[in-house]
Amino acid sequence: MGSLQEQQHALLVDKICEIYHKISQLETLKPSKNVDTLFTQLVLTCIPPSSIIISNLPNKVQEIRSKLIRLCGEAEGHLEAHFSTLLASFSNPLHHLDIFPYYSNYLKLSRIEFDILDQHYSAGTGPPKRVAFVGSGPLPLTSIVLASYHLKETTFHNYDIDPSANSMACRLVSADSDLSQRMIFHTSDILDVSDELKEYDVVFLAALVGMDVDEKVRVVQHLAKYMAPGAVLMVRSAHGARAFLYPVVDPKELQGFEVLSVFHPDDDVINSVVIARKHLITTRVDHHHHLETGSIMPYSCKYCEFQMFNNPLNKVSMIEDLAIDE
């Protein structure tokens, strides 16, 4: 006989799976009364704080979750394209953003992200000058809200793989004399962007860039390779039952970064926020001693850390880096 908590988790999973089956039978995920109703039901089911641990669920449920995240991503893309087109019919689209049903959610999430960034971004240098947003989509609300209310001097470089998403997004800001100068759109797969990434003080990674763990890790590894040392990475994740809507980013997966803070909201803001800083030193460390002792290389090896920070060559390179920075 399972505990009350286990019974609650089982009921929650059953309800989510039932909604998934209805969504998976829809002919299209473009906005309509039926589509909107089902996704609203799904979101309302997943939002209440839950102690459910996604990794403990059976494989069958894990498969449904993976498919559901992709369906949510597709539906979100259609919803954003629909409202981006609608907004573009106004002479100044940015004055009418509140017609988007989740606009207030973006206002709250952007405020959270700005506050977290403000706490951890190096105070001496002032606000970030150049920010990249990876996976900006046809309705780049995070960039728009941050640029309009929080980072009023910052230039935002928005990356999306879809040229039509970028042309829609571009139309929204073109009538605004300020944002049209500070928001730049790049059509490219982020895995094909290398040296440009060194130019950004902060990189935001949208929740749906990398729909599963392997894809997400590949993107994070690429960012770790090319971002500037000390630059900040803001990653959106999910917690509890909200992980049926968006991929989860385990802080342990952010190799090459120091995780500074993880924030899990408990209101109607769905995404968790992870902030990390790219390591200042990227040194190849020899892990052969693990093979000698027969131990498996752990996530953090104290011996290797000792070697890294007590290697005189590293101290020289740190001094050189400081001299270059000055």
Automatic annotation (TrEMBL):
EC class of the enzyme, as a word: transferase
EC number(s) reported in the record: 2.5.1.43
Keywords: S-adenosyl-L-methionine, Transferase
UniProt cross-references to PROSITE patterns, sorted A to Z: NAS (PS51142)
Source organism, top-level taxon: Eukaryota
Single Gene Ontology MF annotation: nicotianamine synthase activity
Annotated catalysed reactions: 3 S-adenosyl-L-methionine = nicotianamine + 3 S-methyl-5'-thioadenosine + 3 H(+)
Hydrolase as UniProt keyword: no
Biological processes, Gene Ontology terms: nicotianamine biosynthetic process
InterPro entries: Nicotian_synth (IPR004298), SAM-dependent_MTases_sf (IPR029063)
Pfam families (UniProt xref): NAS
Function statement: Synthesizes nicotianamine, a polyamine which serves as a sensor for the physiological iron status within the plant, and/or might be involved in the transport of iron.
Similarity comment: family membership: Belongs to the nicotianamine synthase (NAS)-like family.
The protein, known as: Nicotianamine synthase
